[in-house]
Amino acid sequence: MPSFKKHLFAAAGVLAVSALALTGCAGSSSGGATGADAKISIGSLYEPVNLSNTAGGGQGVTEALTGNVYESLSKLNDDGTVEPLLATGHEVSADGLVYTYTLRDDVSFQSGKKLTSADVKASLEAVLGPDSQSARKSSLEVITGIETPDDHTVVFTLAQPSISLPYLLSYVWIINADATDIEKQADGTGPYTLGEWKRGSTLTLNRWDDYWGDKAANKQVVFNYFTDATAEDTALRSGRVDLITSVQNPDSLPQFEQEGGFTISEGQSTTKELLAFNDRVAPFDDAKVRQAVYSAIDREKLLNAIWGDYGTLIGSMVPPSDPWYEDLNDLNPYDPDRSAKLLAEAGLPDGFTFTLDTPSYDPHPAVAELLQSELKKVGIEVKINTISADEWYTKVFKERDFEATLQEHVNDRDVVWYGNPDFYWGYDNPQVSTWISDAEQAKTEAEQADLLKKANRQIATDAASVWLYLYPQIVVASDSVSGYPVNGLNSQFFAYDIVKE
């Protein structure tokens, strides 16, 4: 499942709904040690549901464990590039159907077992398994065979070429094939071992001194979980935590600026706030109606009301960090007159009424009320139906029982979901599906980008959804710490370079 920001499912494959942090409040002090002996205390709103990336661990498990406890064959860097990690490299057959990966020979799991190709095979098979909730499961189903001719070689056979395979494999944690109870325990190859997890409070990572690569720059990392953004901000201001991974309370930023002693970093976000239509049902099966809704919304006013001076307007599902980004804001501009004209052309000159299924966690309720106010001006009545994250997953994502909904999609490079008519929003354009399929089988990255730009432009022209804004990615940290990531691609948060002076 693709990754949603605050729902209940894994952030490593097709639709991961990540859960809003549960019931805890941080109580851990950031401590006084510095340098290599420092303990780094991190504030987060995203506590894991469990510790597995295939069993619905949520955004929090990606944030805490990806790259820190678990590693993959390839690594998605904070700048969006991909490089080898547990593999030294790979070769591709002339027809693009066979990828041969060579593993490093100096890697062990934290339990002491040496990494072998059997572990890689088992990890991929878990992602592809029938019960997997991995965000990239559907994309990786192009793999039809996994062979392990020796302990350091893995051969993937594909049903068709997949230029994105190295990128997709950066989502797949390599887990000890013999590990058990991975929802509660961890045995990875990363620079930290899993320490104590106090549910509703903290999750501790301890530096692993036998790590195969460069050792972590700090001795310990403690993720402190909060259910309230204001409480999280207070913890940072009081020194109980050293940094916040993703600020969700923009009203607090002036306080940090005025008090001094803090660094505010706005990185590149990949989280899109969507007004998603059910394109299967009337009147949203008509592109003119969807375009009319789009042009009735003053998105700049909406973004300012929710995020103040932060965040970005986008005109499509593609954020600026994706290789095929284009600014398409002008395709569906804010223009109530255009909206009225399109409604008339669609046979709805007096407007219409629809129900908006709205997740109950912030900022969705506020966004829904603003949309209700905007659309009323062009004769469209919005009935807000507030539902929990669990209800959203069942009603909207699984049963497709909705007219329109609000949702935030976390992952980068996820415009490809519009090529799947069976996806929850039901957008179905055969030409777009062909472009997206052809892009994945492209021989060069330039060809891939060109095809996905065509697909993205058509999706935006059709107003398949309304892309309201791109979330800001704001990290606020004490001036005493440095080396933290700021972009937060796909919710990962590499902690191993963070140092405290």
Low-pLDDT parts are 6-29
Number of strands: 20
Number of distinct helices:
13
State the CATH superfamily name of the domain at 272-470: Dipeptide-binding Protein, Domain 3
Fraction of residues in helix:
10-25%
Class from secondary-structure proportions: alpha+beta
CATH architecture of the domain at 272-470: Roll
For the largest beta-sheet, the strand count, sense and barrel status come to: 7 strands, mixed
Rg estimate, integer Å:
23 Å
Mind telling me the CATH class of the domain at 272-470?
Alpha Beta
> What is the global morphology?
globular
Strand order of the largest sheet: 8-9-10-1-11-18-12
Head-to-tail CA distance between termini: 41 Å
Mean pLDDT reading: 91
Strand content: 15-25%
CATH names the topology of the domain at 272-470 as Dipeptide-binding Protein, domain 3
Description:
With 501 residues, the chain is α+β, with helices and mostly antiparallel strands. The chain has a domain at 272-470: Dipeptide-binding Protein, Domain 3 (Dipeptide-binding Protein, domain 3), CATH 3.10.105.10. The chain is built from 13 helices and 20 strands. The chain has helices spanning 59-65, 117-128, 137-140, 165-169, 229-237, 253-259, 287-295, 299-307, 336-345, 364-376, 389-398, 430-440, 445-461, and strands spanning 39-44, 74-76, 82-84, 87-92, 98-103, 143-150, 153-158, 192-198, 202-207, 220-225, 243-244, 262-267, 272-277, 353-359, 381-387, 404-409, 465-470, 473-478, 481-482, 499-500. The strands form five sheets. A seven-stranded mixed beta sheet has the order 8-9-10-1-11-18-12, with helices on one face. Strand 4 and strand 5 form a beta hairpin. Helix 12 runs antiparallel to helix 13 (445-461). The radius of gyration is 23 Å and the shape is globular. The relative contact order is 0.17. Residues 6-29 have low confidence and may be disordered.
